[in-house]
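Usage

Read records sequentially. Each one opens with the input sequence:
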Amino acid sequence: MTDSSDRTAAGKYFPRVPDREKNNFRPAMDEAEFRTGRQYALDLAKRHAGRDWIDELTKLTGRQRDETEWHLQEDMVPPEDIRRACKAMLP
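and closes with the structure output:
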């Protein structure tokens, strides 16, 4: 029986889809896409220490500051616009 999910180091399950070229399974999305808001916040705080990086992030997303902060405090994947803004601010 083939397992249709994959458990990552974080203990989360992700759906897998067939890889036509290799005839095996691969994750449906890159695991980096599943970073939580807290993980992004820690990386941004290290990268932009001493700066109001949350203000820069809110300008990039167009969201309210408290809404952006809420997404960065949760152990869940933030919305696409916040993920894109975080990636733009990280090397």
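Summary fields computed downstream for this record:
- DSSP finds four helices and three strands in the chain.
- Residues 19 and 48 are 38 Å apart (CA to CA).
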